[in-house]
């Protein structure tokens, strides 16, 4: 079958690879009908993520049709149409039982590597390095889904792929980011980053009762989407000083809730992934502007900082002093996608939201390498790409 494979920094290729097979009795195989490229894929693309190997199949936002199930799979049948969460979770450990699926204790066969770096291992993810499980990803024609009874959500309402695909990651991620922000009535919510995650965080902030949403980015079409579709006020960080502007807009108090939907590759910061120690040291020395630092500085005293943006390793010269002295609450994490599948699917089915608004590009799997480049460079007004194998 064809798949997109990783071959080093900014080198993604279309490769012929073996079709996946059932390995464990709780596996299922799906034939992929749509699969998206995520901002998280750019961390791999740019070589920030350690423990990638040449030829790894990437991608973690897939959906498709079940073509084979293992003997112990109970909830899926051949022919079912499913969206697959990017988090792989066993469903039976203490964390899964506590609805914290992205912290599953059992799904990462390479937990020892993660433990060395983090002290504990989070859940495995599709197509996201050997440290996080080494599972083949979903930018391919077929995908093996471990713990098939726990992850995939069946969609039988006839909604097109474009409307349900983002349940795999970016819609729940934006939603959990807004939930983690502890939004209360009359709150002003500031969202750094107007990529797909930021756009869904904006939508979700309204759903959770925000009074005002302010979105920050520098890319015109993304700011425009935040304004036109997201009803947000916007700040272009290349035109305005973000702190000054936010203080002006909030009567010097600062936004009550701040969401960092940018993560490790914040524009203007240089590299901060721990894959490249030298560049990281450089970053630490130069004290460049940084979204986390900026959000901590801007957030009102006693406010909440929610961080869906992905950070790797010792990512930043994080000013913890202000976090303590301003009594900030910080919440972060990979999304517990399984927790949100049913309620968010219901919102889509009831017409409360149509997630396809973020799609800027649709292309074939063969065009994948070109689309990675376009998305990475933020060219051609690219916001979110859906690939169809
Ligand atoms: P994206 O690359 O499309 O968007 C990032 C946006 O941030 C861009 O529009 C960019 O212009 C903007 N940006 C860069 N520097 C900025 C700055 N200094 N201030 C304000 N905006 C700035 O990515 P995405 O798909 O929207 O993902 C965003 C982040 O969320 C990534 O770090 C990704 O890895 C992460 N993510 C996390 C989870 C999770 O489970 N927590 C899931 C999916 C994605
Ligand atoms: Zn993703």
TrEMBL record:
Keyword Zinc in the entry? The reply is: yes
Please give the Gene Ontology molecular function terms for this protein. adenyl nucleotide binding; anion binding; oxidoreductase activity, acting on the CH-OH group of donors, NAD or NADP as acceptor; zinc ion binding
Record-annotated Alcohol dehydrogenase-like N-terminal domain positions? 25-152
Q: CDD domains of this UniProt entry?
A: FDH_like_1
Q: Which domain of life is it from?
A: Archaea
Q: Which organism is it from?
A: Natronococcus pandeyae
Q: Where is the Alcohol dehydrogenase-like C-terminal domain?
A: 196-265
Cofactor(s) the record lists: Zn(2+)
Q: What is this protein called?
A: Glutathione-dependent formaldehyde dehydrogenase
The organism that produces this protein has a lineage beginning with: Archaea, Methanobacteriati, Methanobacteriota, Stenosarchaea group, Halobacteria
């Amino acid at each position: 079958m064809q798949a997109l494979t990783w071959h080093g920094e900014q080198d993604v290729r279309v490769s012929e690879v073996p079709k996946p097979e059932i390995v464990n009795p709780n596996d299922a195989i799906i034939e992929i009908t749509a699969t998206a490229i995520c901002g998280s894929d750019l961390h791999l693309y740019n070589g920030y993520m350690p423990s990638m190997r040449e030829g790894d199949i990437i991608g973690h936002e897939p959906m498709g049709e079940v073509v084979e199930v293992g003997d112990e799979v109970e909830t899926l049948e051949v022919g079912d149409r499913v969206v697959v969460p990017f988090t792989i979770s066993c469903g039976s450990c203490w964390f899964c039982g506590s609805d914290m699926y992205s912290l599953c204790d059992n799904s990462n066969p390479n937990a020892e590597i993660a433990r060395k770096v983090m002290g504990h291992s989070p859940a495995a993810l599709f197509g996201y390095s050997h440290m996080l499980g080494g599972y083949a990803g979903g930018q391919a024609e077929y995908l093996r889904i471990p713990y098939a009874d726990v992850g995939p959500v069946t969609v039988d309402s006839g909604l097109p792929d474009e409307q349900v695909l983002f349940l795999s990651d970016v819609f729940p991620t934006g939603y959990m980011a807004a939930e983690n922000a502890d939004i209360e009535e009359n709150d002003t919510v500031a969202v750094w980053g107007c990529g797909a995650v930021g756009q869904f965080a904006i939508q979700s902030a309204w759903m959770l009762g925000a009074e005002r949403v302010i979105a920050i980015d520098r890319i015109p079409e993304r700011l425009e989407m935040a304004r036109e579709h997201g009803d947000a006020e916007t700040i272009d960080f290349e035109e305005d000083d973000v702190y000054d502007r936010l203080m002006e807009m909030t009567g010097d108090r600062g936004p009550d809730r701040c969401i960092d939907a940018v993560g490790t590759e914040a524009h203007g910061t240089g590299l901060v992934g721990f894959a490249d120690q030298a560049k990281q040291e450089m970053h630490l020395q130069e004290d460049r502007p940084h979204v986390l630092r900026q959000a901590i500085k801007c957030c009102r005293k006693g406010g909440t900082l929610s961080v869906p943006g992905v950070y790797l390793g010792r990512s930043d010269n994080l000013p913890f002093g202000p976090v303590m002295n301003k009594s900030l609450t910080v919440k972060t994490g990979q999304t517990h996608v399984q927790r949100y599948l049913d309620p968010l699917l219901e919102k889509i089915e009831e017409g409360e939201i149509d997630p396809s608004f973020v799609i800027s590009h649709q292309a074939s799997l063969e065009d994948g390498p070109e689309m990675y480049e376009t998305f990475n460079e933020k060219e051609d007004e690219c916001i979110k790409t859906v690939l169809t194998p």
